Amino acid sequence: MPGRQSRRSVLAAITALPLTGALSACSGNDSAAVRSGSRSRSGRKGTTTITFWSALRGSQQVVDAFNKTHDDIQVDFEQIPSGTQGGYLKLSNAARAGNAPDVATIEYPQLPGFAIDGVARDITSLVGAGLRAKLLPQSLGQTTFGKRTYSVPLDVEPMVLHYRKDLFDRFGLDVPTTWDEFADLARTVRRTGGGRRIAVFPTDGMSQMAGWCWQAGAQWFDISQGAWNVSMADAPTRKVAGYWQRLIDEDLVHCNSTTSRLYDAQIGNGLVLTRLSGAWDAGAQMKGHPEQTGRWRVAPLPQWTPDQPALGTHGGSTFAVTKDSRHPEAAMAFIEWQVAHPDALKARLSSGASSQYPAATGLVSVGRAAFDRAYYGGQDIYRLFEEEAHKIRDGWVWGPRMTATGYVMQDAFARAGAGSGTILSAMRAAQDGTMPDLKALGLATTQHST
């Protein structure tokens, strides 16, 4: 059984080298072999019982399918709140008490923090070469620090442009391919009247802002030379912040939360013509507004430099084996089945409309077959997702306390939307609010203010 790493050793590993892609990560065995003859927590010989916590829709269906087809491993599942709604606090408290589940769902931005805190176990030796080869390198790169792997990606969500084709057709609008074209389109849309805007700047959108800056070449965090280097107002971020500030100043976009009833009404009433979000949002739109069937399409996100296309992500989850797991090999076997077996994805999709883009690229055809194309006018959106996923820029690093960073950013975005401050000042506030948390962790840090 892999040993538990001390906090100091995890800190050393996670700051030793920059985040690396999957191809350079250490390989373990070709599969996550489960020890024979192990006893479950209930004491039955030959069966290992593990626990699994997740907020992801469809997880119960996945567990049921796994338990029906596996005799040597059985999974006890608990549905928990989403991370920001209490799920991460529950996981942290359980880990402090020494009774965290064997397997937990952790989103990409929160993974570094759970690795540093010692909650997410180093599973480098458990992730076999066969599984690594199935995963999109950019996704596994987001779970690998200093050649040490701390979780396995379930999905990776390239940012795309969702747009109202019926309204584009009515007003004679062309789908923008560059951000300059998007700004011109925003001015045209405002002139149509009726309160319509091209998009919403999300005052609660730390992940969306990160995706836009990621695409532009920003590097908010890096862990080179043994320290966490923080620069949340670097040149690419300033470019993105200035761009959105101009759209806000010219009243070309709505500026509000995208998890609010207001936003839902804006989408429902056709007051927003595009959504700039991850691939998963196609399924969320289907579920939230079934009355808009046939009106939406998906296109590539506008680019800054079309001949050098790049993307960031928005959304996505991973599965970690926790430090408290007594059966890490069995936990890893369950994780591998969840992320790479067709039956697992079919079970998850059976829970309702979903457009998640699997990190295991061999499952793209499963998602494509399960997705009802009628909502998007027959468009094969998975083909587009597949093309866009390969544009994700490698090397992005999330910080150790992104939940706290996100709260500071969200508050500052809301003030900027109300005319008190700017998007750039919000980014600087987020950096200022991040540094005390990093120092409290005992991390070596540098920061670059611009």
UniProtKB/TrEMBL annotation:
<keyword id="KW-1003">Cell membrane</keyword>
<protein>
    <submittedName>
        <fullName>Sugar ABC transporter substrate-binding protein</fullName>
    </submittedName>
</protein>
<dbReference type="InterPro" id="IPR050490">
    <property type="entry name" value="Bact_solute-bd_prot1"/>
</dbReference>
<dbReference type="Pfam" id="PF01547">
    <property type="entry name" value="SBP_bac_1"/>
</dbReference>
<dbReference type="InterPro" id="IPR006059">
    <property type="entry name" value="SBP"/>
</dbReference>
<keyword id="KW-0564">Palmitate</keyword>
<keyword id="KW-0449">Lipoprotein</keyword>
<keyword id="KW-0732">Signal</keyword>
<feature type="signal peptide">
    <location>
        <begin position="1"/>
        <end position="27"/>
    </location>
</feature>
<keyword id="KW-0472">Membrane</keyword>
<dbReference type="InterPro" id="IPR006311">
    <property type="entry name" value="TAT_signal"/>
</dbReference>
